[in-house]
Structure formats: structure tokens, C-alpha cells
Amino acid sequence: MKKYVTIPNSIATKLSSADTARFTALAFTPDTKGYTDATFKQIGEYVSPAAPESENTIKEFVRRLKASNLINIDEVFMDGKKRNKYYMPKLESHFIIVNVSILEATISIEAKGFLIQLFTLTINGTYDCNLPVTKIVDKIKVSYPSALKYIKELLESDCIIKTKNGYTINSKYFNAGCSKEDKYISQIIKDIKGCEYLEDRYNKTDWSKI
To answer: pLDDT, tens digit, for every residue of 155-203?
Structure first.
């Protein structure tokens, strides 16, 4: 199974919180040919391993997903049965990186999707969403009462932490990319290469202690 998947930031405004969780689960289904052809039953099991969603629930989700234009979906016949081929987008920008551990998070599907949506609002390279709830609901497809409900659940589950300016998201479920420190160290290493004196001087440096 893939350890990480990339999810478009636009998901926060195009899908509900529950459908955001379903979309993310779909992205983790096996993809070896440039697409996934998981059945409704298989998708339901990925969405909620402990209590799989029904095939009818997933069927309705796929109908809404088609309307969102987030991905391409082709209908084909395999062994006399109709199947869907889901072509997940190849993203180069405006995306978040989600860890497979989120599939096992013991929170509601709605809260899980809201957490993913919330991460699209974090500051680049961090896990910090420095926005009050009133601003969050302006940027996510969710009502104010629902947002309060999901935030309460996420706080109680230690998925987020309340901060002075907003919320910090548990890094267990996401990858924020390189930190400022990582980028700084990478630049130093890049500058050193090619200079014989500096390479000899710093080739044994423990960069983690800088």
C-alpha cells in the first residue's frame, strides 16, 4: 500500500468533509496502471476499515465526485460487469501530502475529511492553520455548526491542538514538506559542493545538529 498520496487543495471547496475522506481513501487504493478500478465495496472498506461503508453510499459518492471534475472516471465492462476506472490527478502544485495512517484514525468520517480540508489551509511547510473558525468556514465546504462539532472531536482525539492564532495539526497524518531548517541546510550543502577546501572541512558535519 502507498504510504503517501497527494490531494488537490481544491478538494476543500468542491467536496463535503465526508466526501473528502472518501476521496482520500480512493487515492490510496492500488494503482499500478495509472488508474484504480476498485469496486464500491473495496472503496467502502478503505474509507472505514473498522465499519465499511455500504456500496450504495460509495455509489452516491462517486456520482458527486464525477460532478466535481476533480478526477477523470471512465466506465468499462470487465467480466461482463460494469466497473469504473478512476484516474487520480498527477499534481505538481497546489496539493497536500497525506499519510496512509489517516485511514486508521479512530474518528468519524466527517471529522477525518474536515481534518484533511483543514490541512489545505496550513501555512506552507508547517502544520499550522492560523485561522479562526469564522475564517475557516469561508474557505471550506462546511457549515459553522459542523465545523465546531468536528473541531471538538479533533481536539478530543489529539488530531489538532488549539493555539493562540488557530490550530496546529498532528503531523502523524500529513507531510508538510521540507522545513525552513531543511531548506537552509540543503542550500549550505549545495554551496559547499565544488569547493575542495570546504568539502574537506565539512564533509563529516552532522547536519542534524546545525
So the answer is: 999 999 999 989 999 989 998 875 444 455 555 555 655 555 555 555 5
Report the chain's C-alpha Rg in angstroms: 20
And the C-alpha cell for 61?
A: 459518492
Neighbours of 149 (CB within 10 A): 16
The tens digit of pLDDT for each residue in 106-126 reads: 999 999 999 999 999 998 888
Tell me if residue 97 falls in helix, strand or coil. strand
Report whether 122 contacts 115 (CB < 8 A): no
Its sign, for the CA torsion 27, 29, 31, 35, is negative
- The number of C-alpha atoms within 13 Å of 99 and in the hemisphere containing its C-beta is 14
User: Whole-angstrom Cα distance, residue 150 to residue 208?
Assistant: 37
